[in-house]
């Protein structure tokens, strides 16, 4: 730790590395880099554009490569794995814990995966296969098989002596030992803090905590995260359908779940995937984004087609063309607010079919108030601008209708999409825009055709 | 734990409570409710509309009220605090840890705050005042003063005996003891796991870990969260400018920071605040949202004004009115993708002024490819639809220009806004829409006026 890395912020550090890289001092840069934690090295790699990323990757100590790979997001990891041959990948995979290996293996080409599997000893292979048998976004997929279990009838003193004899210490992020029956069924947890502060002659059964509920292996990652957040857990045991302990989930993996979920929601509304690398190759990014632009183009053309139905009307009253984006936009904004609230409500488990009625009636009341308020404002401006009370009346009506339709869609869409297994964070926005464009243009131009011609 | 709460999911539980509430069995509902963890009670309250929320709040055990308040989001907490008098608030505040009290006090009316302060003993008041002296979103604001420190020269055996003599156990989420010098300066941490697995005759200095870097009290909450995520920390010491240990940050508070940050990004893009209660009173919601609708209306009218400049052109070629939303929309989508990526990059510390050049050139390359691709598609459709090669050529040019302008703004806006202290998650989207609307309409209608009339 001779480099001043500890007090500098991430960007300073990257900046420093850039400078050293540019000065051409590879040895100094290598030394600086390998003084960092694997997660920090991953962070640096992700902040670098691909050409520099390749150079820096070559500087990483062989022993740290596996860990660094784990901390990279999917895109950058794929990019780096593509540049490695099977031998290098095997070497990197060597020192990893089984649950970490499981994460990594899922990104490998099938041929390399089977090589990795056959390079493992019996026990590790079995554990890896168990870990791989659960979906990545379930408690089973998140869990760690590295844990310490104790029996309820022994005394704390026996536990203390047992721990001191363990040659390789305790697994990382161990805040409790899992108390199991002879059959391996979950009974409770013994917090290390309780182990340290209670009488060594007490039995585990007397001191253990009963209110940490074990997590079923098929629980969804999102539910696991919500539970960790609510109960301030550091680790929690995972059980199978028979109550047997399979492993445990630790808070570091839960933080990743929360971050990924958040990324998914935030990036999803722009049609980006959560593994998106900021410096992904141009062609890869362009291809992915093209799909999203194409889907949105369909929406835009649907809107254009609706406008096209009223060409004759617009030809006579050009003011309609001037004002129509205002109608669509007000609906879009109001609907997005409700949609966003509903998507988050579902993610946090606050919103379900049981209380959707409340949300809808509240949001519709809000929409009615704001719809009328802004309809009046827009009508006033339109009247001053074009001096036509007819246009003013029609734009006010159209805005009110569109805001109400947008809000109703915004509230109902997420639960509806969720029920059909479609991800609301991805599809919600596009569908909502379609609704607000179509309803906006149709009501405004339609009413104008009926009453102004 | 006689109720089947442990195996049912959150929504089932809320559902069950609803049923019991509707059946009018207040006693049963009260019993069910108070069997839950305070965080779960808070969750239930947040899933209920205000009238039912008041009823359920009255059922909560007095002793649990303080804790439940802590887990509520700002809006719901304010609502409930407004319904309590000073005596009730004082009673609820009684059993809370100092850092939790600090969170709560910030939401109280000033008169109640001073009552709370004067009701505390000397030591607790001092600690509370220290906690309140740091901004809420800094390490000092997040930290907990409840911690155990040890000196480096003592043996593990001394530490073990000291811990066993502590009457009130160890603070929650204690994974390590903080090793300090005689002057209270930070030296390292002693993990409980190391304390348990090493020879009791070893000294703390021999066993302690040096590579947990202490966090300066003025570090931003976001940086603290990034560090916890990167280094898989459970707790970390907080120091003042002289290196003296002030307290520690624990992972439960960090999870809250990550969630709030994520909420802020996700809700912010729709102009909602992160404390937003899904069931907030209609008038409150309406007033808050009205502001956002008003700001966006300005944008919409700016766009309308641009279109208005070309009324004469549209009168002659109505097809322009039909197609113009397509031009604005393609720019909006492409720009939002880049904007979203840049906002996230800044939040994660991956993007700074040092590597923005790379992001811009990569995004512009992507924009050029996609702009040309979709410009060609749109031009083809426009040509088929209106049979005018002039319109086709002009819409292709306008889309390409708009996608490029949108992408450039999307990439540069977040850093620019950040530099001026404006929150990109809030303002980025509105400004971007303004750019894509104005550039889209101006280029499309402007080019048409120049070349088609």
UniProtKB/TrEMBL annotation, chains A, B:
Pfam families: CBS (PF00571), MgtE (PF01769), MgtE_N (PF03448)
Entry keywords, A to Z: CBS domain, Cell membrane, Magnesium, Membrane, Metal-binding, Transmembrane, Transmembrane helix, Transport
Xref: SUPFAM superfamilies: CBS-domain pair (SSF54631), MgtE membrane domain-like (SSF161093), MgtE N-terminal domain-like (SSF158791)
Localization (cell): Cell membrane; Membrane
Domain CBS: 143-206, 208-264
Membrane topology of the entry: Multi-pass membrane protein
Domain of life assignment: Bacteria
Signal peptide segment: none
SMART domains listed in its UniProt record: CBS, MgtE_N
InterPro entries assigned to the protein according to its UniProt record, in alphabetical order: CBS_dom, CBS_dom_sf, Mg_transptr_MgtE_intracell_dom, MgtE_N_sf, MgtE_transporter, SLC41_membr_dom, SLC41_membr_dom_sf
GO molecular-function terms, A-Z: magnesium ion transmembrane transporter activity; metal ion binding
GO cellular component, one term: plasma membrane
Residue stretches spanning the membrane: 290-310, 316-343, 364-385, 391-417, 429-452
Complex and partners: Homodimer.
NCBIfam families in the record: mgtE
PANTHER family per record: MAGNESIUM TRANSPORTER MGTE
Family under the similarity heading: Belongs to the SLC41A transporter family.
Job description of the protein: Acts as a magnesium transporter.
Full protein name: Magnesium transporter MgtE
Organism annotation: Halochromatium glycolicum
Lineage: Bacteria, Pseudomonadati, Pseudomonadota, Gammaproteobacteria, Chromatiales
Underlying gene: mgtE
């Amino acid at each position: 730790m001779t480099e001043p890395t500890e007090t500098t912020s991430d960007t300073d550090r990257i900046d420093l590395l850039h400078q050293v890289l540019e000065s051409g001092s590879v040895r100094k840069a290598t030394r600086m880099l390998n003084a960092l934690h694997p997660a920090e090295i991953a962070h640096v790699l992700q902040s670098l554009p691909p050409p520099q990323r390749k150079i820096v990757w070559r500087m990483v100590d062989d022993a740290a490569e596996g860990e660094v790979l784990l901390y990279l997001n999917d895109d950058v990891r794929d990019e780096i794995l593509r540049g490695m041959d099977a031998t290098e990948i095997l070497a990197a995979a060597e020192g990893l814990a089984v649950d970490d290996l499981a994460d990594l293996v899922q990104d490998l080409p099938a041929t390399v995966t089977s090589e990795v599997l056959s390079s493992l000893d019996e026990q590790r292979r079995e554990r890896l296969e168990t870990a791989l048998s659960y979906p990545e976004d379930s408690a089973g997929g998140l869990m760690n098989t590295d844990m310490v279990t104790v029996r309820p009838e022994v005394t704390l003193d026996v536990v203390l002596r047992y721990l001191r004899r363990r040659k390789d210490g305790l697994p990382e992020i161990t805040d409790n030992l899992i108390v199991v029956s002879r059959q391996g069924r979950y009974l409770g947890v013994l917090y290390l803090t309780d182990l340290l502060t209670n009488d060594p002659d007490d039995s585990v059964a007397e001191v253990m905590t009963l209110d940490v509920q074990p997590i079923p292996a098929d629980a969804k990652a999102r539910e696991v995260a919500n539970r960790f957040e609510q109960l301030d857990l550091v680790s929690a045991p995972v059980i199978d359908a028979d109550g047997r302990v399979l492993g445990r989930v630790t808070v570091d993996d839960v933080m990743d779940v929360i971050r990924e979920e958040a990324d998914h929601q935030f990036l999803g509304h722009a049609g980006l995937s959560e593994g998106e690398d900021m410096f992904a190759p141009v062609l890869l990014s362009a291809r992915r984004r093209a799909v999203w632009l194409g889907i949105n183009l369909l929406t835009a053309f649907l809107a254009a087609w609706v406008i096209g139905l009223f060409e004759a009307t617009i030809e006579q009253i050009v003011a309609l063309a001037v004002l129509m984006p205002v109608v669509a936009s007000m609906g879009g904004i109001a609907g997005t607010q409700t949609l966003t609230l509903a998507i988050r409500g579902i993610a946090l488990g606050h919103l379900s079919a049981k209380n959707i009625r409340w949300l809808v009636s509240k949001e519709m009341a809000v929409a009615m108030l704001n719809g009328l308020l802004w309809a009046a404002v827009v009508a006033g401006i339109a009247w001053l601008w074009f001096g036509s009370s007819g246009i003013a009346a029609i734009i006010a009506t159209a805005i009110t209708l569109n805001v109400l339709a947008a809000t109703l869609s915004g509230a109902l869409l997420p639960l509806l999409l969720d029920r059909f297994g479609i991800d609301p964070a991805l599809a919600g926005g596009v569908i909502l825009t379609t609704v607000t464009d179509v309803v906006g243009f149709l009501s405004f131009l339609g009413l104008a055709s009926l009453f102004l011609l």
